[in-house]
Amino acid sequence: MLVTRHVLAASSPYAAPYYIVRGTNPGPVMMITSGVHGNETASMAAAQKLADDCIAGRYVIHRGTLIIVPRVNQQAYAREIRGKPDLNRTFPRRKSGKAKHPLAAAVFRLARAHQPDWWLDLHEANGLSQLSPRVLGQTLITNPGSSSVAICRKIIERMNRSIPVHKHHFNLKRHELPGSARTAAARLLSAKSVTVETCWSLKRAVRIRYQTEIVHHFLREAGMS
User: Fold this and answer.
1) Alpha carbon distance, N-terminus to C-terminus of the chain
2) Where along the chain do its domains lie?
3) Is the pTM of this model over 0.85?
């Protein structure tokens, strides 16, 4: 396994480090982004932990290529804000279309260069989806008709078996969000793209653990680890 560090949008105000983890055997490509919204810190910590664990050899990718961008929106993170404009509304909407923000454009150029089979976008949200269908906390979200649905259901079942408090259980949601990384990846790259949402009301350490466990489940399902 080989891990290399790179910089996205280098020599620009949006520069952000990212990592490419190459397994010893050929296989699928998975892209993991986090910090598209700068105040969703547990998801960023989980993504950085995965990169650090790969670098240290504590977690091994046996097959394929893993691309991790742990903190996409550095400027929003520094200000502890979601970000203005909302970066997750600025990704390309059509094959002939362009991203509406230089940082979204840089992220999507990276994706086009590697053509990921999977794209996980790690986020956090208000509210528990077990208590209200209108909120996104504790959900996996994918586009309608996505081939990732069956695997999402399997991972949710595994996660929920390990979570003793029922209101903290995960749910599956299916909807398109034009301009989001998830929908752009599904529409334009034909990737199995999933948004992972943990709930802000849970302890930060718990949210990091849930994000980490979900990513590990997806990597195993993809046959990469």
Assistant:
1) 11
2) 2-221
3) yes
